[in-house]
Design brief:
The protein is built from 15 helices and 10 strands. By secondary structure, the chain is α/β, with parallel strands linked by helices. It has 2 domains: 6-245, Alpha-Beta Barrel (TIM Barrel); 255-331, no CATH class. Strand 1 (6-7) and strand 2 (10-11) form a beta hairpin. It is globular, with a radius of gyration of 20 Å. The chain starts with 5 loop residues before the first strand and ends with a helix.
Length: 332
């Protein structure tokens, strides 16, 4: 089923989206993900307050102008005024779409009354949504959870507020904030939000493969899916999900092609951050590629080796081992 969904002037080319993940969806990884044709690839969450202060690390999270199309920058914050100014700054940085974070469950975010904590305060949530929309001429989307806890399952209420303010697309993670990532995402519960609004709603949470993508859409009756943590070490799972959801034909990637993707990702990370910082940041992805590669030896030992290596050539050789290919193949 091909996408007929538009956000502003952007027609989504796929019903499969790539989620914002703090410390994960930096520019190098978003460039990798974009190759597999998701409808949107969303940045790491960008704190509006630190963006306003010109923090270099925050600006790096918002990077992507000229590389990611459309560029979606996710903003997080608790003050409507900061969020309005942050939206304008994100637009100035090249954002084509602004996403509002009302889903992050991390304590360092929720203790500041940001992220999913906003679901406890619908009035403040409304103020922030209206502020962001007033601060930018770009289309606005919103990501949230089912609610704060089992006693406050108010995603449909927030969805109606968002739709009334002009938000053009919603993503709902099928857990409450108090669940964090425990148990399994309740895709069926997202159906209540989908029924409550007319704008597109996408389901998120525990979608690890094409079968999960199909089941999540069927259970929630949503317009599409958003893949998250399962992309680490398996960015090509977007293609697999697209084959099931969008009906596109795909050829299975060879181990050599997967290894080349991993090596290109590693090189992009080093180029973006510099060698010292890049080596550190790349580790989570390197470990993911080893974990999901076909190597049938001691994966824990191989992960330890690759994450401790400070020699780029050695890292590439170890990635070749993870994908059961020769050094000559990955050098080709």
């Amino acid at each position: 089923m091909k996408s007929n969904i538009s956000i502003g002037n952007y027609k989504l080319t796929s019903r499969v989206l790539a989620a914002p993940m703090s410390g994960v969806t930096d520019l190098p990884f978003r460039k990798v993900l974009q190759k597999f044709g998701p409808g949107l690839v969303v940045s790491e969450m960008v704190a509006s307050e630190t963006l306003l202060k010109g923090d270099e690390e925050t600006e790096a999270r918002a990077a992507g102008k000229g590389d990611i199309d459309p560029l979606v920058i996710q903003l997080v914050g608790r003050e409507p005024e900061w969020m309005a100014h942050g939206a304008q700054m994100a637009q100035n940085a090249g954002a084509d779409i602004i996403d509002i974070n009302m889903g992050c469950p991390a304590r360092k975010v929720t203790t500041g009354l940001s992220g999913s904590a906003l679901m406890k305060d619908p009035d403040r949530a409304a103020d922030i949504i209206y502020a962001v929309i007033s601060g930018t001429s770009k289309p606005v989307t919103l990501k949230m959870r089912l609610g704060w806890d089992d006693n406050m399952l108010n995603a449909p209420e927030i969805a109606n507020i968002a739709q009334g303010a002009g938000v053009e697309l919603l993503v709902v993670h099928g857990r409450t904030r108090c669940q964090f990532y425990k148990g399994h995402a309740d895709w069926g519960a997202v159906a209540e939000t989908k029924k409550s609004v007319s704008i597109p709603v996408f389901v998120n949470g525990d979608i690890k493969n094409a079968a999960d993508a199909h089941n999540a859409m069927s259970s929630s009756n949503c317009d599409g899916v958003m893949l998250g943590r399962s992309l680490v070490g398996r960015p090509w799972s977007i293609l697999e999900a697209r084959a099931r959801i969008d009906g596109v034909k795909i050829a299975e990637l060879s181990n050599s092609e997967k290894c080349r993707i991993a090596i290109d990702h590693y090189n992009e990370t080093i180029a973006f951050y510099g060698e010292q910082k890049g080596l550190r940041i790349a580790r989570k992805h390197l470990a993911g590629y080893v974990e999901h590669g076909p190597f049938d030896g001691n994966k824990d030992r191989l992960k330890s080796e690759i994450c401790q290596s400070i020699n780029p050539a050695m890292v590439m050789d170890l990635l070749a081992r993870a994908f059961n290919i020769s050094c000559a193949e990955h050098a080709a």
